[in-house]
Amino acid sequence: MNTRIDNLLKLAENTVAYGRKKGANQIEVLISEGNEFSVDVREGNIERLVEAASKELSLKVIVDQKTASASSSDLSEDTLRRLVENAVERARLASADPNSILPEKVDVTTDGIKLRLFDPKIPELTPEYKILAAKQTEKICLADPRVRKSYGASFGSTVGGVHLVNSNGFSGSYSRSGCSCGVYLQAGEGDNLIDEGWFDSSIHIDSLMNPEALAKKAVHRVTRLIGARKIDTQNVPVVFEQPMTDELLGFLYRCVAGNGIYLRQSFLADKLNTKIGNERITVVDDGLIPGAPGSRPFDREGVPTRKTVVIEKGILRNYLLDTYSARKLRTQSTGNASGANNFHMEAGTSTPDDIVRTVDKGLFLTGTIGFGLVPTTGDISRGAFGLWIEKGEIAFPVAEITISGNLGQILNNVELVGNDLEFKRPITGPTIKVAEMTIGGK
Fold this sequence. Notes:
2 domains, PmbA/TldD fold, globular, single chain, alpha+beta, 9 helices
């Protein structure tokens, strides 16, 4: 462990010791640090450039089952002592909650190195390299005559660390990195204008799409929608393109997360070990996948991450919990205090093209607009656009439609699951085909 990490862990340990001295029954201290670079380019010119370093200490104190939190970017000894003292005093004025406790210490069996969370090449990237990558991406896009204009291209990188200590004996650190590049474009004519693009991110620079590949994908996504038309309202099969499955799973994650369950704000409350989907549906949360964006050795409470099967062949097996929601539900944390840990639907065997070929008439869903997700019922109603399928082939683009359904019904009506699962986001899934949904049109 290097000196910088040692010093930050020591600072956290000293803050924990001071909190105990001042009357905290329990105290947790988290120090996050990072170096961020981001550049936004539009029409070849830099519109925004940020290069910044940051450190922040956040703490939680518990006094007689009463909790208070505080944070500071000033890590001087005097400031942190006042921060602790004020938090302890505020905690004494709060209402008691017997579920507000820190988790018991559990040994962490992996680390950031094994999980490949840090790429040493990213700190070596020069600002000129990053600016050029954004400019090249946009320039390639604008060279296509079908692209009317660019809303801008961007490149970003982060290098940081997490250092956590609590009064139950936990002490741990890990470093992580990330990089991203994206572009957003407009195509079309007259009143029929289409805005679309593509964004890619990775922990490792070698896994990030290069400017040529990213620009090609962005241009394809926006130009395939040129000439989009309305369609009649009807019930048809819907193929969810991979990013749309990600959105669907994001909604599912909200419905299985602990706070929604114990507050009874999810239609999946009280549904453990019951059938909520068909046998094609297996959904897993796994924070131990090397190189994946949602991986981490432990969550922000110091609970080791793990592989948790959420839905097993259609049967709801587990909720995803932090320590508080686990105590409310009288069970154990699943290590999800930091959110989703590579929450994904397991891949099937069909290629996306094979899935499209099975549709006689239906929608290939490529984008949604607005809100319209109701966790208490599972209902979905959103603006949408995509590509119309006729006799197994893409026929024409469609827009100004709505897509309606219910998450429970969708999970039961998935007919095919694609083989194109990629771990590019903490919540992700492959292309899927749903037997029938309502498409609102003319």
